[in-house]
Amino acid sequence: MKSRNTLQKDLVLSAVKMLCHPTADEVYTHIAAGHPAISRGTVYRNLNLLVDSGKLRKVLVPDAADRFDVTLERHYHIRCRVCGTVDDIALPYQDDLIARIPDTGGFLVEGHDIMLIGICPACCSHSPA
User: Fold this and answer.
1) Which helix (H) or strand (E) holds 125?
2) SS (H, E, C) 13-71
3) Among residues 2, 49, 69, which one has the least CA distance to residue 79?
4) Angle at Cα 18 formed by Cα 16 and Cα 19, nearest 5°?
5) Domain match, 43 and 82 both
């Protein structure tokens, strides 16, 4: 069964494109500012539908809310440990990384995601010298 396009789905996709790796709550807040009748559940449901249909990518963030990304190619991310901002990082995807692991402890490794941690430029500029 083909998924149909809806205004809500279009709003969610547009919000993710406009925001940088937003959480579901950030997407909801952004949309609700202009469309107060939209529910949080509708936004969450449409985010998941867009991920399932391959139009968005879910970025799992350890110890924080998942983020959503419009860049579908395999790539890595960096997260600010101060403010939590997530962004793409210019590091070529390491297709051979799994093959270079000497012992997986019996795990059948299916893929990998790398989340680098640091301090973003905005937080660096606000920290005392």
Assistant:
1) helix 121-126
2) HHHHHHCCCCCHHHHHHHHHHHCCCCCHHHHHHHHHHHHHCCCCEEECCCCCCCEEECC
3) 69
4) 65
5) no
Stated pTM of the model? 0.84
What single-letter amino acid sits at 99?
A
Domain boundary among 32, 58, 84: 58
Structure tokens at 3: 């998924």
Residues in the chain: 129
| Domain membership of residue 24 as a residue range | 7-58
Q: Are strands 76-80 and 115-118 parallel, antiparallel or unpaired?
A: parallel
Low-confidence spans in the chain with pLDDT less than 50? 1
